[in-house]
Amino acid sequence: MKRSELREVLFKLLFRAEFNDVSEMPEQMQLYFDNDADNLKIKDEDREYIIKREEDILSKLSEIDKEISEKAVGWTIDRMGKVDLAIIRLAVYEILFDADIPLGVSINEAVELAKKYGRDESKSFVNGVLAKFGK
Predict the structure, then answer these.
(1) Looking at the whole model, is its pTM more than 0.90?
(2) How many structural domains are present in the chain?
(3) Looking at 31-35, 50-54, 73-77, 106-110, which range is the least confident one?
(4) Domain containing residue 71
């Protein structure tokens, strides 16, 4: 799978995490792979990457949310739309913990996800929050 496709799967799983307890996420991931991911033809190595990455993101969620809260002036995590928040969390994880992905790529990919899955104003909101990580 392309990195952008892997990122999209991770976004969908992070979105699920908004509605499920962290302890339920292994089961939610299995449900995703069994049902929703049929059309993607995910290879075993990609599946392993997705699972490890998702687990790492969830383990660092409080740190990621702290960083988001500091940058998203006037917004609290609770007020953000769930789609926007999942996208921002994924991008912030990449920015903070994955030196292989340039800042601009993380932001651009997040904006693309916001265009596809978010509301009309999501792309601007996501871009605005993430742009503050470049300063």
Answers:
(1) yes
(2) 1
(3) 31-35
(4) 3-134
